[in-house]
Amino acid sequence: MPILWTPDIEGVTDAFSADHADASAILGPGEPCADRPDERVYLCGPCSSALDVAGYLAGQGCLDPWDSVLATRQWAGRGQMRRTWISQPGNLFAAWRLPMPPSSWQNMLSVLVGWVMCRGLGELGVPVTLKWPNDILLHGRKIGGILIEERGDVLLAGIGLNIASCPEDADLRRDHACVAANLGGLLRGVSIFGLWLRLVNFGRLRYSTELSDSTPLEFSQLIEPVLAYLGALVRVSDNRSSVCGTYAGVSPDGGIVLLADGERRVLHSGSLRPEGWSEGQI
């Protein structure tokens, strides 16, 4: 897997080289590179976001499916609903170009990539769960998130993981659905770069396998063991409405299924939290 240093991409990133001051933040000594010569990992210094760098590279014809960007810091990271993603140094900020899936999978992409990341971390001994549609939790606290963006025929997954630090509760938005945490010492001896290589290698296999071997309906049943709050009373809210019900699973089109007032409701947007959750709870 070639490691490529980004050139100076004006407006979205600073130049990056092996002796860059931030290099030690993501590179570990002697990290093995997988034997996949067709995949590239671009490393860049502080940037607006890894997604912006990936979009630029894709537009220049320099980012093929399975290639990725790994950034040391972001000054304009973003999450679901264009919310600000607080990007503290020492954490993982990546953008991964994925092959376009069949149209039947289009609305399941956030859940699919989230499941892939959860399974990949699980292989490393980190017991994470997926909070619909795109948050990664460790013991009920948010340690990461997924953002899917399509730019023409380019499909990008933005992936953020709190490795060394996480935002303070006071820095989170007022209506945050869960408190933040970081992986701390759970990945001792693994650099951010080494972690990313492992997730990409595992993720490529799982993503390809599910798209070729499963239907969205079959996948919606497969993922149930990693769904946070499944079977519990939850509330899904957006700017227009709020629905409370028992969390019954994920629909084949990526929605969350609630049993509410004797009816089966499928919602496709909103923020999920356990019913009765209040700020400061784990």
From TrEMBL:
Residue ranges constituting the BPL/LPL catalytic domain according to the UniProt record: 35-211
Name of the protein in question: BirA family transcriptional regulator, biotin operon repressor / biotin-[acetyl-CoA-carboxylase] ligase
Keywords on record: Ligase
GO cellular component: cytoplasm
InterPro entries, A to Z: aa-tRNA-synth_II/BPL/LPL (IPR045864), Biotin_CoA_COase_ligase (IPR004408), BPL_LPL_catalytic (IPR004143)
Example of a GO MF term: biotin--[biotin carboxyl-carrier protein] ligase activity
PANTHER family in the record: BIOTIN PROTEIN LIGASE (PTHR12835), BIOTIN--PROTEIN LIGASE (PTHR12835:SF5)
Organism: Desulfomicrobium norvegicum (strain DSM 1741 / NCIMB 8310)
